[in-house]
From TrEMBL:
InterPro entries linked to this entry: MlaB-like_STAS, STAS_dom, STAS_dom_sf
Taxonomic source organism: Klenkia brasiliensis
Highest rank taxon of the organism: Bacteria
Pfam family, one: STAS_2
Name of the featured protein: Anti-anti-sigma factor
Length: 113
């Protein structure tokens, strides 16, 4: 029996590649189901160096792990993951876990038009 990927997609959050492919956009609640859906739909070779997290309302350990994987991929390529304006709750979580040292936070104004 095959499962339709779209039919199993969570409706409470998302991680999607922007239309131009230059960044990932995280919105809503980022949990293991959202991360699983992302991993099924976006190949690691397509992971960009910028993540827009302005729309995140909650992030589980699975979401934090995804950020670490994204940062490691960039580091292996000689770059650095840029995280666009983490909301206060996420910024506090990143500071408490020390993950704020794994990537660079950037203002939304640095997003190319």
């Amino acid at each position: 029996m095959t499962t339709d990927v779209d039919a199993t997609a969570p409706d409470h959050g998302s991680v999607e590649l922007s239309p131009d492919g230059t960044q990932l956009v995280f919105t809503g609640e980022i949990d293991k189901d959202v991360v699983r859906q992302f991993r099924v739909t976006v190949r690691p070779a397509d992971w960009p160096s910028r993540v827009d997290v302005r729309g995140v309302t909650f992030m589980s350990s699975a979401g934090l792990e995804l950020l670490v994987h994204l940062a490691r991929k960039q580091k292996r390529a000689g770059g650095e993951l840029e995280v666009v304006e983490p909301p206060t709750s996420l910024r506090l979580l990143l500071n408490q876990t020390g993950l704020n040292r794994v990537f660079r936070s950037v203002p939304a104004s640095s997003i190319p038009a």
